[in-house]
Amino acid sequence: MEKELKIFSEIVESLLKDEVANPVSEVIPAEALHSKVDIRLSEKGIPDDTFNKVLTEVVLKTPKTSSKYFFNQLFGGRQPKAVLGELLSVMLNNSMYTYKVAGPQVGIEKEIIRKSCELINYGDNYGGTFAAGGSMSNFMAMLMARDRADETVISGGLRHKMTAYTSADSHYSIPKNAVFAGIGREQVRFIPSDNNGVMKVTLLEEAIKKDVADGYKPFFINATAGTTVLGSFDSVNPIADISDKYGLWLHLDGAYCGSVIFSKKYKHLVDGVHRADSFNYNAHKMLGVPLSCSLLLVKEKKHLNDSFAKDASYLYQTDADDFNLGKTSLQCGRRNDGLKLWTLWKSVGTEGLEAIVDNQFALADTARDYIRSNPDYQLYSYDDSISICFNYKGLDPEVLCTRLYEKNKLLVGFGSFHGDTFVRLVTINATNNTEDILNFFKELEAEADLMVPAAMAT
Questions:
Q1: Cβ distance 280 to 138 under 8 Å?
Q2: Among 165, 253, 296, 361, which residue has the least CB neighbours within 10 Å?
Q3: Distance between CA atoms of 86 and 338, rounded to whole angstroms?
Q4: CA 49, CA 55: separation in Å to the nearest integer?
Q5: For the chain, which residues make up each domain, given as ranges?
């Protein structure tokens, strides 16, 4: 491995230098990829010198999601201590299903779950697991809700038309998961949101009452802590009142912004999280941990066991079930996603994670203040969100974002809400500072102003 580690160090050094000189990689059109980069596989291998050159080229031509010019998705940046943990997990190559093959890594995962559940006051019967992402966490929550609502499903399959409820602005994984769970998309009720993107709770209860009257079996409510477009937070307590009243499972999808649990200043955005039956957050989003690092937490661990435990004598041969994590996971073989969060958390403490979260909101405030002070901008989003949605000089946001991308200026996306389309700036990279946010607007305005004469002419 010594030779390969040396190659790795050299390529990483080249990448870090290139991120400074060229923070946005050259865009390679999909149809030109094979002609621009040597990615084809062949029968025979290639010499090491050629291999190193090709590999370096592939790395440098890949979009730079950790640069200060990347604002396109709900992740970004690079926390060095977390990267260290990720690299070590690759070298260790443990699978997390049994203590026999993972050892101390099981303890690390359990400690992260324990501390996370402590932060949301989940009590003594808590449980949790690491999933492959937010969509998988939402799926597992739906399965547990289904199985609690009808225990015969596990052996006999679905016997009722079950209904699930979620905001019209929630993540697309909810209807997709309903298919996988045997519920069906037609049994997902999309509850309208208000002008801030928050689910209308009165309409939620009306939908449940109608389904009960029509002979359906309601079983699951999905609330959102950070919608994908506006970054909105559903009001957990009023929704929990309804879930309690009708005996439905309440899941709080915090994949995007659930990490506010680490912040004393912003934790109020998920007031009532302790009342949810399950909750998830993605550490690869607000905390800046490398992809993927998604936690699913449950108030009652028994539901993980009820839905996912299955004995296998060829696998579970030593130690208590509590240390054989495959018993509470949808997956069997599962990579070690906990170590990278642990190395970050261990090094900076909970206070350090709080600072990471708070800085993102501070950067969002900087962006909103800039927009509000400039009459050429129109703001569509609101305070207490790290998604800043706006338009500039009435220009088409799709055209503007595409142009910035194709000209290697910025990576930023656009979104839509209640009929409006706009640029969506996400300040999720906590390694950025105020200057980086102001530079974003400088770059955007420079390119946009080149578009203004053409836009006026049409």
A1: yes
A2: 361
A3: 9
A4: 10
A5: 2-64, 84-343
Do 422 and 391 touch, CB atoms closer than 8 A? yes
| Torsions phi, psi for 59 (to 5 deg) | -65, -45
Average pLDDT over every residue of 19-30: 93
Residues with Cβ within 8 Å of residue 358, at least 6 apart in sequence: 263, 265, 266
**Tokens describing residue 261:** 């649990």
HSE, side-chain direction, 13 A CA sphere, residue 247: 6
pLDDT value at residue 320: 64
In angstroms, rounded to a whole number, what is the distance separating the alpha carbons of residues 404 and 23? 13
- Strand 294-298, strand 249-254: pairing: unpaired
Structure tokens at 157: 């399959």
How are beta strands 249-254 and 217-224 bridged, if at all? Answer: parallel
Nearest to 250 by CA among 118, 329, 142: 142
Span 329-366, pLDDT tens digits: 888 889 999 999 999 999 999 999 999 999 999 999 99
DSSP string, 348-384: HHHHHHHHHHHHHHHHHHHHHHHHHT-TTEEE-S-SS
Nearest Cα to Cα of residue 242 among 224, 225, 221: 221
Proportion of the chain above pLDDT 70, given as a percent: 97
Q: Hey, what's the torsion of the CAs at 140, 146, 151, 152, to 10 degrees?
A: -110
* CATH classification code of 84-343: 3.40.640.10
Tokens 């993605």 correspond to 282
Q: Is residue 198 a contact partner of residue 233, using CB atoms and an 8 Å limit?
A: yes
Q: Is pLDDT at 458 greater than 70 in this prediction? A: no
Give the burial class of 120: count Cβ atoms within 10 A of its Cβ; 0-12 exposed, 13-18 middle, 19 or more buried: buried
Cross-strand pairs, 378: 391
* Burial class, 255, CB count within 10 angstroms (exposed 0-12 / middle 13-18 / buried 19+): buried
Rg over alpha carbons for the chain, rounded to the nearest Å, is: 24
Query: What average pLDDT does this structure show over 228-251?
Result: 98
Write out pLDDT tens, residues 31-40.
999 999 999 9
Q: Across all residues in the chain, what is the average pLDDT?
A: 94
Number of Cβ within a 10 Å radius of residue 361:
22
Tell me how far apart the alpha carbons of residues 335 and 94 are, in angstroms, rounded to a whole number.
7
Q: Packing angle between helix 338-372 and helix 80-92, nearest 10 degrees?
A: 150
